[in-house]
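Onboarding guide, step 5: your first structure request.
Type a short instruction followed by the sequence, for example:

Predict the 3D structure of this protein.
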Amino acid sequence: MPDLLLELFSEEIPARMQAKAADDLRRMVTDKLVAEGLVYEGAKAFATPRRLALTVHGIPARQPDLKTERRGPKMGAPDAAVQGFLKATGLNSLDEAKIQRDPKGDFYIALIEKPGRDAIDVLAEILPVIIRTFPWPKSMRWGARSGKPGSLSWVRPLHAITATFGPETEEPDVVKFSVDGIETGQTTYGHRFMAPAAINVRRFEDYEAKLKAAKVILDPQARKDIIFADAKELTFAQGFELVEDQVLLDEVSGLVEWPVVMMGSFESEYLAIPEEVIRATIRNNQKCFVVRDSKTGKLTNKFVLTANIEAADGGKTIVSGNERVIRPRLSDAKFFYETDLKNWREKSIEQLLEKFANIVFHEKLGTQARRIERIEVLAREIATYVGADSEKAALAAQLAKADLLSEVVGEFPEVQGIMGRHYALRQGEDDQVALAIEDHYKPQGPNDRVPTEPLSIALALADKIDMLMGFWVINERPTGSKDPYALRRAALGVIRIILENELRIPLMELLITAHIEVRSELVHLKLDRLSDELAKLPPEVLSARRASSLLRKFEKKAFPEELPEEEMEAAMDEIFDLRLFIDDRVEAQLRSQGARYDLARAVFELGTEDDLLLVVRRVEALGKFLDSDDGKNLLAGIKRASNILGIEEKKDKRAFDGAPDAALYGLAEEKALAKAIGEVQAEASAAVAREDFAAAMSAMAKLRPPVDAFFEKVRVNDDDPKVRENRLKLLNEIRSATRAVADFSKIQD
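The system replies with structure tokens like these:
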């Protein structure tokens, strides 16, 4: 079968856009092929700084012929309807149509045969549309044609389009089309400097090989592998160790077509700067890797750069140029760091935090200073649950955001927290306090580690819970794909910290505390605004004494000893809504670890468990139980009971609550089931109370034989209404007994 080769050759494509662009190109072309009936065997896309390329293997040479039936008007319909039908279907007369018998009447049916087209013609039609509608996040127009309507918009000026189609054993054909005056052909170009001449290509294997000969490595992964291997080898040869950085490696591989790894250096005096700052400076400004001494583990004054050319002088000029740029950047970083140290040495905590009183965190949530106060309250409370010192937790909360005022963090935001730890240690603060300052932002993603020290845990949870509750109360919640304040990430952070540290924390109590603090802040903001407005009034209109009295009256009303019932209900609704959001994230986390979503829902549906760790353990035990024969059969029996109850409750318009009457048991199977329910309920509840969920499941398994026997021998809807009601109550007892473990009605078969 024929293959397609497509290359879009342009000016520099930003590295951050390349991977998505390659994936978009593959998806858009293959989706269109399938929609046109051209089912392919495989496809792969590639990106370099100057080209997007795609190969699609095993495309049929021709579309299949299509036969479709189109229903027309009824026999005897008006002539206008008949003529419209004939025109739409291409029939010459109704004699060419079939008649379809139908209870609603007899209808004309047209059999439409659409012959398939050659695949190359289909490609010539779909490819220019894809190019014109390509979803670049940013694009531009250029040249003389840019002012004309419909001119091409592309990430950078597009220079050439290579498009060939044909089987491996034959000379391929060019897929003929043009976009904005650019005609397709078989010509591409090699490396901008080392092999800029035009290259004639035929199919993908030929194309990839000729590009490599022209100093272009097409495959991004191959470029990454070369950079990584060469950098490791270069550093190892000099007794050093490369500091690996996958994100930087991804970016650097998108900046070069022919990677050449080299090593540069800087003055040793800059090693006095914290390693994180050196790394951020060199990484952000020159996209270079830093190097460690393999013996001491400390950074050296070396760095690894990736050039895009094999220089005639062996790279001396390139290395020198990078050193010349890095040197002043490190000098600036050193100045920023020393300035920050001076500020921290000369000022007390209170002086450092004074500036936060004038920095707004969010217009609806007050200043950073007030947010720090809220975090402090939460950190103190959480500390009591995780075995941390409450006073140290308060101090860590006060200092946690202080480095946001520093010169270094202003220049390199990614080192916030890290610099806070450095400055706290230089000021003589406790090691645990300093570590908590660094760790309180963690985890920042699914692959980031979670804090493990008690003080760090308390501060990290406090920061995230305050963030969640604050934006929840002001109704700035995630919607669809939009989450501007990263609240999903904050919720997952709370969950991971609790679960991975196996913490026993009453989450609802913490949410209530956070809600009280946020609501208090909103009232304070109203007071501040009212005070400002009253202060603007002239004394003859409102005296200072009267203004003060009004403010006290407002404050007393705003902070009543007991909230009105309506406000209390609204507050609890907000708290429960946030808790449900966190529960949803727990389900997502469990699913990502291979657990079934319905098991988590079955446990959460009980609404009785505030301890996330116990929820997870209960889900794990439930999953193991349902994998057993006893579990599967008992689930079937419980669901049968629930279905019967649901039908009968709907029919009778009432629930069958209350204990069954033992005197109405007429069959041995009823008595046996009632006895088993009583024993199992007591045993399972006791096991749950001591958090032995495996034992609770074992107890539940004892219900299987009597439940099976009951449904085999007993007719629930007995002719005697009293017996029927009693048996339905017995079924309800099954449902109630099993709810000690989970809501089995939420579990999928």
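Each response can be followed by summary notes, for example: Residues 617-746 form one domain.
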